[in-house]
Write a structure and sequence with these properties.
Layout: H1 4-29, H2 32-37, E1 39-44, E2 47-52, H3 56-64, H4 67-101, H5 126-150, E3 155-163, E4 166-173, H6 175-180, H7 183-211, E5 219-224, E6 235-239, E7 242-243, E8 252-254, E9 258-263, E10 267-271, E11 280-282, H8 283-289, E12 292-297, H9 308-332, H10 340-352, H11 356-385
Antiparallel strand pairs: 1-2, 2-3, 3-4, 5-6, 5-12, 6-7, 6-9, 8-11, 9-10
Helix pairs in contact: 3-5, 4-7, 4-9, 4-11, 5-7, 5-9, 7-9, 7-10, 10-11
Amino acid sequence: MVSIYEALAVLAVGWVAAYLLYRVVKQRRGRGEEAASGSSVTLYPLFLIVKSRRITRPLDFLADKMPRLWDAVSRAAVAMGFGLMALAIYILSTNLSTYLFRPEQVGGQNIVIPLIIGVTIRLENLPYLFLAFAIVLITHEGLHGIAARREGLPVKSAGIFMIFIVPGGFVEPDEEAFKSASPGARMRVAAVGSFANIIVGMLALMLMFGAFMPQESGLIALQVDSNSRIKVNDIIVSVDDVPVNRGTLGTSITIKETIRIKTLTDEYVFDTNPDVRGREFTLGSVLRGLGVTQVDTFFPSRISWLDPLSAYNFYRTLYWLQLVSIGVAVFNMLPIYMLDGSLVLRAVLEKFVKDARHAKVIVNTAALLCIGLVVANISFTYATFGFFQI
């Protein structure tokens, strides 16, 4: 099996090869063709930007449709933006307080890690993560563009970028027009992106609760040894009639002459080694001994026509969509440079603080404090739990 580091090394080599090919093609084509098409591709080692002016046309079309709705959304987004900013600071502060003063209460709910593909995110989760990123970027940046057009701000282009394995997106308003816009207009344009993400995240959560039972009904086998009788994608529901789920993997059973494994579709009976009969082993150890090397939780679907594998993939898609959407919405409203929360804070200070120097001090102080909170939470997470992937 290819390790994470080998996969990242292959990707890095691929980036360099793509960059060299890009340089050759660009020298032959020249700049005229890109300018005529209204699109541009810029590629550096480990960094890609794809930009297009044509994407702005659908934004103009949508901005002209249902103008009252978009204006109402923009106003609501400002109120929600301040709420998300306060929520983000509160969560990070109380989380850090738990690490510092109540370490005995620290658990999985206190984990704060960056989503870095192939580093903190397991490679098998890439399809779900890329789909989630695509939906988040389209809705986030799309609503930025619509709000900008509703405020009368020209949008020069829109596009996507990728830094090694971290994707992103952007809508590029006219910089001078944005700077000269009223503070209220800048707040509305900046805040609507996170508003879109919250709506997407809540819809994903509603679908999860509506389409799936809240109780686990087993573990799905994601990886098995080549000689294992248990197959990949088998849903393991019990071992010797003891239910199998995340909470019971540490439960011990006494080994008898045989071990009976029930799945949703099959039943396996294994003869045991006489040397271990009468001894106790955890369910997790039993499954590993039978060749099951990686499992994940399985929630049964309320949709009768979904087979177990499709149900699992649908659940994981919704799970990652809500995780990324809500996570981006909250984090994006922190008053940190390069994030929308900083634009919102700058605009509101410009409106209510007359001295520009005082406003700049507040913005810089808020940014440094929030950066410190984020770094401290990530550091304590790894100091407590060690390196891990999700």
